Amino acid sequence: MTSTNPIYSKSEVYKVLEQVRDPEIPVLSISDMGIIRDVLIDEKKINVEIMPTYSGCPAMDTIAADIENTLHVNGYADVHVETVLTPAWSSDFISDEGRLKLREFGIAPPQKNAKRGSLFHKEAVTCPQCGSGHTELVSQFGSTACKALYKCEDCLEPFDYFKCV
Amino acid sequence: MSVSVAEMTEQDQLFEYTVRLGDNCVILGQRLAEWCGKSPVLEEELALMNVGLDLLGQARMLLDYAGKVEGAGRDEDKLAFFRDAQAWRNLLLVEQPNGDFAKTMSRQLFFDCFQFLQYQKLSNSADTKLAEIATKSLKEITYHVRHSSDWVIRLGDGTEESHQRMQKAVDELWGYTPEMFDMDAVDEAMLKSGVGVDLKEIEPAWKKMVEGVLSEATLNFPELTWQVRGSKEGKHTEHLGYLLAEMQFLPRAYPDANW
Question: Does B25 touch chain A (CB under 8 A)?
Answer without folding.
Answer: no
